[in-house]
Design a protein that fits this description.
By secondary structure, this protein is an alpha/beta fold. The protein is built from 15 helices and 17 strands. It has two domains: 164 residues, Rossmann fold (3-Layer(aba) Sandwich), CATH 3.40.50; 199 residues, Phosphoglycerate kinase, N-terminal domain (Rossmann fold, 3-Layer(aba) Sandwich). Strands 5-6-4-1-7-8 form a six-stranded parallel beta sheet, with helices on both faces. A six-stranded parallel beta sheet has the order 11-10-9-15-16-17, with helices on both faces. A three-stranded antiparallel beta sheet has the order 13-12-14. α5 packs across α6 and α11 packs parallel to α12. The model has no long low-confidence stretch (mean pLDDT 94).
């Protein structure tokens, strides 16, 4: 058992049983080719284990946003060949027309991908009729898609109440890591929260100040906090209307004994493009025509010293405009420090979110973190302290 729900270790004999496995196969494609197979590879452990145990594996997944209308461009048929290559074994495709008859032809150990669950209008509404349609095909249900667990859909939440429900290996690993990061972490705990706007991560910040010992704020949102403290930020991205909210968050942090870290030296430029002329200045020296685009090296070194005092790190969002050189320097430098501390065994590091994963890959350290989540919205909602319907359904099922 892991945190109150069952895993594949608890599933018992599955030979000949039809197991509906909710996975995330919503991969990016260009010209008919999968451009990033990370999500496909994440399903390997669960799908192959069940197939090797002679289950009949029926993979449920969504692809794009068809809004209940079948569309060839959003058909999972195009995923079957690349998925079979990743799995290293044959994969069948089953359309919703004649699905029952097609499933009946499958043998123990077979793997099949069912058509896009969102071709049903009731999937996203968690329509009981759609839940029943899916449930009729299977004997057991496994949710292995944490990235979709924040949605109460038929295939992510409804099925867990209709069939015996279990967490897949990827889901299990994700939840174990999240428990270590914020559920029951070893203190001191640091959180790095970056990104463009405070408004998109208000709930994250409000939740974290009561849970962590150090809150490191970077990206464009740091400018809003600096401005709230009376610092002139020039032409920087800044939500001046949220100055009062930023002050409230800092006051809440003070009450909770959480230290908020804002940059005190920054990298600025008068234009936002790759490799423009830049200056590294104290935050009080930003000119009216300049933009803050990255955290400065002195602040990064100090933040590295903070991480050396911590036992747990949660990271979501870059420190600067990391997609545009040279404004990736701070993110890369701090990520490498965190990775080194993790490899030494002193730090449990958990990171998540699309931009964060890209930044860690850019730094070449994604494999050195304790756990890197590819989930976007679900990871953010977890950082906000929200209950995720797909996870809660497993725990109550």
């Amino acid at each position: 058992m892991v945190r109150g729900f069952k895993t594949l270790d608890d599933i018992g004999e599955v030979s000949g049983k039809r197991v509906l496995v909710r996975e995330d196969l919503n991969v990016p494609m260009a010209d008919g080719q999968v451009t990033d197979d990370t999500r496909l590879r994440a399903t390997l452990a669960t799908v192959t284990e069940l197939a090797d145990r002679d289950a009949i594996v029926l993979v449920l997944a969504h692809f794009g946003r068809p809004d209940g209308v079948p569309s060839p461009g959003m058909s999972l048929a195009q995923i079957v060949r690349p998925y079979a290559q990743v799995l290293g074994r044959p994969v069948r495709y089953i359309d919703w027309e004649g699905d029952t008859a097609a499933v009946a032809t499958l043998l123990p150990g077979d793997i099949a991908v069912l058509e896009n669950t969102r071709f049903f209008g009731g999937e996203e509404k968690n329509d009981p009729a759609v839940v029943e349609r899916f449930a009729a095909l299977g004997d057991l249900y496994v949710n292995d898609a944490f990235s979709a667990a924040h949605r109460a859909h038929a295939s992510t939440e409804g099925l867990a109440h209709r069939l015996p429900a279990f967490a897949g290996r990827a889901m299990e690993a994700e939840l174990d890591a999240l428990e270590k990061a914020l559920g029951d972490p070893e203190h001191p705990v640091a959180a790095v929260v970056g990104g463009a706007k405070v408004s998109t991560k208000l709930d994250v910040l409000k939740h974290l100040v009561g849970r962590v010992d150090h809150l490191i704020i970077g990206g464009g949102m740091a400018n809003t906090f600096l401005a709230a403290r009376g610092v002139g930020v020039g032409k920087s991205l800044c939500e001046h209307d949220l100055a009062g909210t930023a002050e409230e968050i800092m006051a809440a942090a003070d009450r909770a004994g959480c230290t908020v870290h804002l940059p005190y030296d920054v990298v600025v430029a008068t234009e936002f493009r790759a490799n423009p002329p830049t200056r590294t200045v104290n935050v009080h020296e930003v000119a009216a025509d300049e933009m803050i685009l990255d955290v400065g090296p002195a602040a990064v070194e100090a933040l590295g010293d903070v991480l050396k005092t911590c036992r747990t790190l949660v990271w979501n969002g870059p420190l600067g405009a990391f997609e545009t050189p040279p404004f990736d320097a701070a993110t890369v430098a701090l990520a490498r420090t965190a990775a080194a501390l993790t490899k030494e065994g002193g730090l449990t590091s958990v990171a998540g979110g699309g931009d964060t994963v890209a930044a860690l890959n850019q730094a070449g350290v994604a494999d050195d973190f304790t756990f890197v989540s590819t989930a976007g919205g679900a990871f953010l909602e977890w950082m906000e302290g929200r209950e995720l319907p797909g996870v809660a359904a497993l725990a109550s099922g």
